[in-house]
Each structure stands twice: as C-alpha cells, then as structure tokens.
C-alpha cells in the first residue's frame, strides 16, 4: 500500500518578514463556462474558453482555490491563468475568498497600464488593503516576446516601507519555428521553441 513519507502541511511554515508574498496558479479560472454558445477572448469563440465545462465543475474549482488561498493567507498574491476578461474573473475570485475570510480582506489590483495582452489567460494580483496600499497604477511589459505580459505593482506597507511585486507566467512550448527540419519531431520542435522563449522572456 502507498504511504506518504513527506505529508503536506495544512498551512505554510512561517518564514518571518513584514509582508507575506505568494504566487498561485489558478489553473484556468474562467467565469465563462466552457459550453455550447460560450465565447471568450481573444477570438470571442468557444475555442478560447479554457475553464470549467459546467457550473458544478466551476463551483468545485472555486472552492478548492479559495480554500488554498485562505490557508496561504498572504498579503499579496500573484495569480496565473486567470481569464483575460478585465477584472471580472479576478473580482469573482476575490468575492468568494472574502466570503470565507471576511469582507474586504482582499481586493484586486487595478488593471495595468499597457493592458493584459491578447492571450485567453493573464496574470493578476490580489492583495490585502488592510496591510498594503497600491502605489500608482500597475504596469505590464508589452514586449511581444511575452505571451502573457508580466505585471508589476508597487505597494506601501503600514510601516512606510515599499514592496514591488512582479507576476510572470512564462510560455512552455508552442509556436513552431519555420526553420526546423521537416523530419523534426513534435517533441523536438516544442522543446526548441520553449527553450528559446524561456531564455528571451526574462531578459
């Protein structure tokens, strides 16, 4: 029988510091249900709807995501794979999270200057306004190498210190380069381009 020798803790271990920062992949958190007649950006067709296939599935996804974020209890969280529909999906998650941890505990960072890109998904930030204040307008890096533009936001803590948070979600293998040999395998092509974009994206 299988036994776990390294069980996961119910909450993260304390690491000290003034501000607790975390990142979390919400695994295609879409408020638009992927069903007949659905339309999602950028194509405004169902093909870009990557989220839950039913309301029941979305309810399960939301509950698991909220439970995890509540346990993490970070002051600011970078989110990956949010539906790229303005702050609609983000605000939906914030509302569900606040329903569990307390009204007004979390808020969504404003949409960034530069936009959120043209992919079906994007990165986002949520934070505790009781612990941090957004300074200025968040910005995104619109360099075309980024499939999902990185998001940068500055916050001020209650003690007067500042913290800058950048959320990134690097691509992982797509867009076939035309120079590849006709005999190249799909795996080789994917690894090639993932390597190229992963090196170029942070630079």
If you had to describe this structure to a student in words, what would you say it looks like?
The chain has helices at residues 55-72, 88-101, 186-200; strands spanning 21-29, 76-83, 107-108, 121-127, 132-140, 151-157, 162-167. With 203 residues, it is of the alpha+beta class. The strands form two sheets. A four-stranded mixed sheet has the order 1-2-4-3, covered by helices on one side. It has a three-stranded antiparallel sheet with strand order 5-6-7, with no helix packed on it. Helix 1 (55-72) crosses helix 2 (88-101). It is globular. The chain starts with 20 loop residues before the first strand and ends with a helix. 26% of the residues are buried.
Radius of gyration: 19 Å
Per DSSP, what share of the residues sits in E-state strands of 2 or more residues?
Answer: 15-25%
**Mean model confidence by pLDDT:** 88
Biggest β-sheet: count, sense, barrel? 4 strands, mixed
Percent of residues in helices: 10-25%
From the N-terminal CA to the C-terminal CA, the straight-line distance is: 47 Å
- What topology, given as strand order, has the largest sheet? 1-2-4-3
């Amino acid at each position: 029988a299988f036994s776990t020798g390294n069980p996961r803790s119910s909450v993260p271990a304390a690491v000290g510091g003034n501000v607790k920062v975390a990142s979390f992949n919400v695994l295609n958190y879409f408020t638009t249900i992927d069903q007949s007649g659905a339309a999602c950006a950028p194509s405004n067709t169902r093909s870009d709807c990557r989220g839950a296939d039913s309301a029941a599935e979305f309810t399960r996804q939301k509950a698991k995501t909220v439970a995890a974020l509540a346990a993490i209890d970070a002051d600011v969280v970078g989110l990956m794979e949010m539906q790229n529909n303005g702050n609609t999906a983000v605000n939906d998650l914030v509302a569900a999270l606040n329903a569990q941890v307390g009204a007004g505990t979390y808020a969504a960072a404003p949409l960034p200057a530069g936009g959120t890109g043209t992919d079906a998904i994007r990165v986002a930030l949520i934070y505790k306004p009781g612990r941090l204040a957004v300074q200025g307008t968040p910005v995104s890096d619109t360099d075309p190498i980024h499939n999902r533009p990185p998001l940068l936001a500055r916050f001020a803590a209650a003690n007067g210190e500042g913290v800058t948070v950048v959320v990134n979600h690097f691509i992982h293998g797509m867009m076939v380069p035309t120079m590849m040999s006709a005999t190249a395998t799909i795996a080789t092509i994917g690894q090639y381009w993932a390597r190229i974009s992963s090196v170029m994206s942070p630079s």
